[in-house]
Amino acid sequence: MISRIITLSKSAFLRFFLLGLALAFTQEPFNLPYCTFLVLPLVPLLVIRFLKTSKQHLFSGFTFGMGYFGLTFSWIINPFLVDPQKNIWLAPFAYFLFVSALSLFWAIAFYLSNYLMKDEQENSKKVFCLSILFALAELLRCYLFSGFPWAILSYGWLDTPVSFFVTWFGPYILNSIIIIVGINLLYSSIPGNVFKIVFLLTAFFGLENNYLEKGPEETSENLTVRLVQPNIKQKDKWKKENELRHLEILIGLSNKSPKPDLVVWPETAVYWLPEENPEKLKTIAAQLGSPLLFGALRFNRNAKKLFNAIFLIDGKGEIQSIYDKTFLVPFGEYVPLGGLMRYFNIFGNSYRLIDGFSSGTGLELIKNSGFPAFLPLICYEALFSNEILGEVKEARWILNITNDAWFGNDGGPKQHLNIARMRALENNITLIRVSNNGISAKISENGKIEKYIELNKRDFLDVKLAFNFKRKNTFYTTIGKNISSYFHLILLLLPILYYSVLNRKK
Questions:
Q1: Pair (81, 151) in one structural domain
Q2: How far is CA 24 from CA 38, 66, 293, in A?
Q3: S-S: 189 plus which of 44, 85, 103, 124, CB 3.0-4.6 Å?
Q4: Cβ neighbours of 8 (radius 10 Å)
């Protein structure tokens, strides 16, 4: 009898793992969003049929997450392959720990659903409670421990009419609606049906918006920006002997005629310190003939702090603006394992000055630079939707520079591109993205890619930005991060409170 239960549990765990793998097909590089409603409705069927104890719920949620996050983030091992002789042995440990940490959120959601509804006989109530807890787990994943809102399900729906919802309440609430509708698809309840109606209305308005004819708008200013994608291999990027060659590649792509209004290089385009090398900046400016915006390291020798920064120099090579990256990549750019990474020499010489990077003072617009005010974002910072809201209201465009050479050639760069596209859509703002190896692109206000440079291609791209007299903020931009976040949290906690009280009365 006991062996039969164990066998049954193993079989159920395998099914949840396979469902997780299937759900990962909603994300890049597969990009099959409608898989969501083929996978999520099966989750409650398996839960009701196979899971009896709290431990079974816990491990089933965990294996479900391992399947989803394991496939979605398979590219996470690529940084360890830059110098495989030194770092390859760490790849499986880092990969397993990372995926396991994300899967714990789903495991706890499954566990609590059984705890709150163990005496409930009506399946529809059990399923709705599970869906709410699942959505709450995903919301908490976006905020707790510095937050990691990568690969939430709403990103998979970016190219569907449903994505129109993010202009109202943002990607996190849309993510919760997708989860609740998907899990309750085969079960009927009053609250579940409400979410289904909201989803259908969103799709209807999204379709209507796609077919609306929008006439040309009068513009007040135009700007030509040159996106430079040098496609320098990560293993060669930080070698001293390659400095001149890499700089020649960047300049060669940048100084073509006709001259643009602004040239943009990617994150850490040069590895020397611009503030300490003014002559190099003047030499570059003389060859380009245009203002230049680029990523580089900045070292405060008094405080002994290293920053990942954006520099804007004018046509004479004078530094006009500096922005220090605020949101740093955990376990990659800041302390959690900074000392350990330096000890094992992970990622080569990127940590050659001190153990990891320091965080800047916060997101901020670059104004009075001779260009329409814009919000600079470095790599990972494009991930944080709510945090961007506070600064983007007065911006005319967003600039995101990155170095996706760390991410490999499959899902990583494409998922990162979708994240940037969502920021453009939800804020009704043009976004320029410049990456070392791709995908560099101009993204329109509706999140569509207008022009781009292919992945792993060395090239440049001139794009024109036309600015209206006044940019129209979306409702999501207007209500701000606090209202959106608190409303979302309360919306999910109310049913949990209801079920807790109901269970206690029983």
A1: yes
A2: 12, 10, 36
A3: 124
A4: 15
Whether 157 and 259 map to the same domain: the answer is no
What is the torsional sign of CA 342, 346, 352, 355?
negative
Give the pairing type, strands 374-378 and 292-300.
unpaired
> How many whole angstroms separate alpha carbon 449 and alpha carbon 451?
6
Both 146 and 283 in a single domain? no
Cβ 208 vs Cβ 202: under 8 Å: no
Round to the nearest angstrom and report the end-to-end CA distance of the chain: 31
Domain assignment of residue 159, given as a range? 2-212+482-505
3-state SS, residue 319 = strand
Return the H-helix or E-strand segment holding 20. Answer: helix 2-23
Q: Are residues 443 and 306 in the same domain?
A: yes
- Reduce the DSSP state of residue 292 to 3 states and report it: strand
Residue 335 and residue 197 in one domain: no
Whether residue 362 is found in the same domain as residue 462? yes
Kindly give the confidence (pLDDT) of every residue in the chain, 506 residues in length, as a single tens digit, with 9 standing for 90 and above: 444 444 556 788 899 999 999 999 999 999 999 999 999 999 999 999 999 899 999 999 999 999 999 999 999 888 888 777 777 888 888 899 999 999 999 999 999 999 988 878 889 999 999 999 999 999 999 988 888 999 999 999 999 999 999 999 999 999 999 999 999 999 998 888 999 999 999 999 988 877 655 555 566 678 999 999 999 988 888 888 888 999 999 999 999 989 999 999 999 999 899 999 999 999 999 999 899 999 999 999 988 889 999 999 999 999 999 999 998 887 666 645 555 555 555 555 544 444 578 888 999 999 988 899 999 999 989 999 988 987 888 899 999 999 988 788 888 999 999 999 999 999 999 999 999 998 999 999 999 999 999 999 999 999 999 887 677 889 999 887 677 777 788 878 887 777 666 555 55
